[in-house]
Write a structure and sequence with these properties.
This protein is mostly beta strands. The protein has no helices and 6 strands.
């Protein structure tokens, strides 16, 4: 606990991040069709970078929607939004065929 009870003259308060959880909903329209015999199977992947030299950290991904170029995903993704702090996010839509990392649609 980071509370100053007056007994420590060297007390340095630690600021807790100020923010809240945010739930993100996704939909897409007119996606590029990357499949040959059917339509793309889109999925959203969300990553965040927590500093200028940080690596991308995967936050989550939605379900795959089969054969749909105008998907409305039911699954939501939650992120912690920090007030007045720059946060870099990457939202990717991929064509997931169940094998490998999938092809980037946008």
């Amino acid at each position: 606990m980071n509370v100053n009870d007056g007994s420590n003259p060297n007390f340095i308060p630690v600021m807790e991040p100020c923010g809240q959880d945010v739930e993100l909903y996704f939909q897409a329209r007119q996606l590029k069709d990357l499949d040959t015999f059917s339509k793309s199977d889109p999925q959203v992947r969300l990553s965040i970078k927590e500093g200028p030299n940080a690596q991308w950290r995967k936050v989550g991904e939605t379900e795959v929607i089969q054969n749909d170029l105008n998907p409305n995903w039911r699954e939501t993704l939650k992120v912690f939004y920090q007030f007045e702090v720059n946060q870099t996010v990457r939202i990717e839509v991929i064509d997931s065929d169940g094998k490998g990392p999938g092809e980037l649609i946008g």
